[in-house]
Known about the structure:
Layout: H1 2-16, E1 24-25, E2 29-31, H2 33-36, E3 46-54, E4 59-65, E5 75-82, H3 86-90, H4 112-115, E6 117-118, E7 121-122, H5 124-138, E8 149-153, E9 159-165, E10 168-179, E11 186-188, E12 202-205, H6 207-220, H7 227-235, H8 245-258, H9 269-285, H10 319-323, H11 325-340
Parallel strand pairs: 3-10
Antiparallel strand pairs: 1-3, 2-3, 4-5, 5-12, 6-7, 8-9, 9-10, 10-11, 11-12
Helix pairs in contact: 7-8, 8-9, 9-11
GO cellular component, one term: membrane
Organism: Tychaedon coryphoeus
Protein name: IPIL1 protein
Amino acid sequence: VTAELMESFTRVFADSVSNSFYPVPQEAIGVGSAFEGWIPQEWDGVYRVLVPLNPPPGHAFHLELNSAGQTAAKTFSVRVELVCTCKREQLGEKLLCLLHHSQEELRQKRSLLDTLCTGSYLDVEKTSRWFSNLVRCSWLHVPQCYSWHLVFQPCSRSCRFQLSRGRKSLVVEMLLGVRQGDSDIFVSSQPAEANFTASTAWPETYAVAEVKFFRHIARQMPRESLHLKCLQVFTCILRGTGFSRSTWKTLVMHLLTIVPLSRWSRREFVQRLWDIMVYLGWCVQWKRLDHFVLGNERLPTEISLPPAMRGVEPLNLFEYLARDPAAHREAMQAYERLQFC
């Protein structure tokens, strides 16, 4: 339902922004566990999609890394620059050049800098409000409006709504993103684990790359493979262990590139669960769990990374264990409790 609705919205969006200087929404990409093929026990029931935004004609987006924030949770600012479109006009395109046309010609046109930016930077909250209004105005133009009832939910950094039809209901959250070059890495409107107060802060997200990885694995897996069941089993015992859902997901993704895919069959299910436990124990003992995307030489080649990310040193997600002996002791005790379970 979510995928079909996003296709309908995309077609309407193209007409809505065609003669404006607002960002151009692209085809939405489903992200998160629901689109990766597994549902954790404590899933919040929200189907999330990332809507890439392209700059409108006469504008360019430039990502600038913020100095604040930890390496594992980088944030960027999206600087908006006006660019000349005179050559495109000479080639027959009907475009106004924001740099060179007269104020009289531009009197009814405002650049993106005047509408959705704070200073020279794209504002997350202004952009989310504009996008929510765009979705609201587009709803009556999509075929789903005749069979579903839509109610918007308040959210300052995304567009979130509930769809209901009889006893059926689902919640959809449309996040906004700006792609880093031609890669599968984006900056997103969704806040990362830390709460970023700056409305011009766009956290980096690897959600699209992770979805592509799970789809890559699914195409090669034998029938009745249980790699996703392994994830679901471990999320059932997360409560009180001190290990996050993202830790288990990272462990399983790494093992999927190490253990041959033919060995994730039903008859080897218990052995694979034990492999995950052993791998976690090694990571906790040595205080090291590498980020799955950054610095991973086993990453499938079909997942595209920005040039600056290629060849970087692997990012250690367990670095805090090396810095804090008390946290390391707690992690070792949590692992021992998991072994007993």
